[in-house]
Specification:
By secondary structure, this protein is an alpha+beta fold. Helix content is about 15%, strand content about 25%. The chain is built from four helices and eight strands; from the N terminus they run H-H-E-E-E-E-E-H-H-E-E-E.
Length: about 210
């Protein structure tokens, strides 16, 4: 792994902030995996354990450091990969200062390069807007595996995050995160409303009634 250059360090510094601000900064960025590029149009912010700056019971790091989530406690700009339901590869960008757990889940994106490769990986998609709609589909579209866990997204490698100009607050919508049963009403899901690739909101059946949790 190559060390970060000045541009990489500057990009990572923009994510050294609270989870929601970092999530907004990731919107509109492009995530590359080899020849495939996806413009990020939907994200979710996640904090960490009760001892950290942003306690979040819905986060994988909500109960402290484990072998699975350790990269979430590291420096910003690394890839946190996990399997959902044992088969869907989901991608997160670590954020916040080194030692404080937080990350941004990439929920959906628009494929802007490498569409032929994505069609082979996502044959069930009926149209381009569905190529990378939803976190598992996005992971499949990019061909990311658990072997990519911990990769530095700002060292110029083949899997990299290219931040775009910040998206204006008037261009972003916010609402509850999808499918979480804890902290279900936090408006920590952000999306670009004009994109057809944004996924549908689905509340967890295990979540308390709206307003009964934080």
């Amino acid at each position: 792994m190559a060390p970060r250059g000045p541009a990489g360090r500057a990009a990572a510094a923009q994510l050294t902030t609270d989870p929601v601000t970092a999530a907004a900064r990731v919107l509109g960025a492009t995530l590359w995996a080899g020849p495939v590029g996806v413009r990020i149009v939907e994200v979710e912010a996640y904090g960490g354990d009760p001892a950290g700056s942003w306690p979040d019971a819905a986060s994988h790091s909500g109960r402290g450091r484990t072998a699975r989530n350790t990269v979430m406690f590291g420096p910003p700009g690394h890839l946190y990969v996990y399997l959902s339901y044992g088969m869907h590869t989901c991608l997160n960008v670590t954020t916040g200062p080194d030692g404080t757990a937080s990350a941004v889940l990439i929920r959906a994106g628009e494929v802007i390069a490498g569409a032929d490769a994505v069609r082979e990986r996502r044959p069930a998609a009926r149209r381009p807007a569905e190529f990378a709609r939803g976190p598992g589909n996005l992971g499949s579209a990019l061909g990311i595996t658990l072997g990519d866990y911990g990769i530095d997204l700002f060292d110029g490698g083949p899997i990299r995050l290219e931040l775009a100009d910040p998206v204006g607050p008037d261009q972003v919508r916010a609402g509850p995160r999808v499918g979480v049963s804890d902290a279900a009403d936090r408006p920590w899901r952000l999306w670009l409303p004009g994109s057809p690739a944004v996924s549908a909101y689905k509340r967890s059946p295990r979540a308390p009634e709206p307003g009964a949790s934080d």
